[in-house]
Write a structure and sequence with these properties.
heterodimer, A: about 170 residues, alpha+beta, Alpha-Beta Plaits, two-stranded antiparallel sheet, 5 helices, 6 strands, about 45% helix, B: about 210 residues, Porin, 12 strands, globular
């Protein structure tokens, strides 16, 4: 019994160790898939002067989806840091993130994104499942990079909106 | 060598640290402490990539007076993403040394273990399952599995205090009382997670703690 049980335990451990590369490949596959999604993301590199700071949005609001399919797009959540970075002229970005359900998810993305020098402010809004970013003035961050950073945090980006669209001001 | 291992791993028992997520973000560290009706454990792990983590784990089996000092890898085999939910499937395991404690004279043995964990979670509902088979040589072998359901009475946002009411049912076939029930409260705030519960079947407390950084 002891020998057979030890064999089972060893087999489980061996399966665990040998499965790691498979998981890595799986993630890589997912990422590739995500890149495809990123290509399809709508990009609005609106001029920063378009920002409408008079919008009374101390809390997140959701803009209507122009497609009229019943979904709504999250717009930038205004925290103090986000607001300050916007005032300096940074580009606002809102990324819809899949699977964000808890504070550990938010913590992971905060840690990963706040390390980037292009990013002046970051906030993960669990209510809208959105990653809110404001870039350093003059800095750029591609949709693909945002998707890759989300993967590093363990999550997946569904869509990215920038500029006026991120602020909910797109016509 | 084994004494050296103990020197490294024993202090982790006294670090406050469980996890909702045994794999963190790339470059993240996590300290996990778990204490249930049978054992107390501490795990410190590092996440080199979002699909796996590697850590050092100490576990003291209070029923049978032995401790296990092990290297503990965890693989995130699959994560299901939805707009409002997340599901995960993990494989975990470890290999190390089992050693007598509290005067247990048995000589040291190699210990190996492995199992699966799975969870599905929204912001207000949780369901999870975990299992483990352990072979600690002459200290004995052991199988356990447990299922847990949870409900959050309100949905907190980032940085808020998140509160979950949970019920865990565990099954340990070799125990005198194989099936027990433990209601618990999970409190979650930023990098900290604390679970406090009480096993109603065998009158034992449950205390789990996680810190992620």
């Amino acid at each position: 019994m002891m020998n057979s049980s030890r064999t089972v335990a060893c087999a489980l451990l061996a399966a665990l160790l040998s499965a790691a590369p498979v998981a890595q490949n799986h993630d890589h596959h997912d990422h590739k898939h995500e890149q495809g999604g990123a290509d399809a993301m709508h990009q609005d590199h609106s001029d920063h002067a378009d920002h409408d700071h008079s919008t009374p949005s101390d809390h997140t609001t959701e803009a209507s989806n122009p497609t009229g399919n019943g979904d709504a797009h999250a717009v930038l959540t205004h925290t103090d840091d986000i607001h300050a970075a916007l005032e300096k002229g940074g580009e606002p970005i809102v990324a819809d993130v899949m699977g964000v359900v808890c504070d550990f998810c938010a913590l992971a993305m905060n840690k990963i994104f706040s390390k980037r020098e292009e990013i002046a402010a970051v906030y993960v809004d669990l209510d809208t499942k959105a990653l809110n970013l404001v870039l350093v003035p003059g800095a750029t961050l591609s949709d693909e990079t945002i998707a890759e950073l989300a993967v590093q945090a363990g999550y997946r980006v569904a869509a990215v909106r920038r500029g006026a669209q991120a602020l909910g001001n797109a016509s | 060598m084994r004494g050296y291992l103990r020197l490294i791993l024993l202090p982790s028992l006294f670090c406050s640290a469980v996890t909702a997520r045994p794999v963190s973000y790339t470059g993240g560290w996590t300290i996990i402490e778990e204490s249930d009706r049978q054992s107390s454990s501490a795990l410190v792990h590092y996440t080199p990539a979002p699909s796996w983590s590697i850590g050092l784990r100490t576990e003291v089996n209070r029923d049978n007076d032995y401790a296990i000092y092990s290297v503990h890898p965890t693989l995130l085999a699959k994560r299901w993403f939805g707009k409002d939910y997340q599901g995960n499937l993990y494989f975990h395991g470890g290999i190390g040394v089992a050693s007598g404690v509290y005067g247990n004279p048995l000589r040291d043995e190699t210990a190996v273990y492995g199992g699966i964990m799975a969870d599905w979670e929204t912001r207000s509902l949780f369901a999870g399952y975990r299992s483990r088979y352990l072979d600690a040589g002459h200290f004995g072998d052991q199988f356990m599995h447990a299922a847990r359901v949870g409900y959050a009475p309100y949905e907190g946002d980032s940085g808020d205090l998140h509160t979950w009411l949970m019920l865990e049912i565990d099954h340990r076939p070799a125990e005198e009382v194989p099936i027990t029930a433990t209601p618990l409260v999970r409190l979650f705030k930023g990098p900290l997670l604390l679970e406090v519960g009480y096993n109603l079947t065998v009158n034992q407390p449950l205390l789990n703690f996680t810190y992620r950084f």
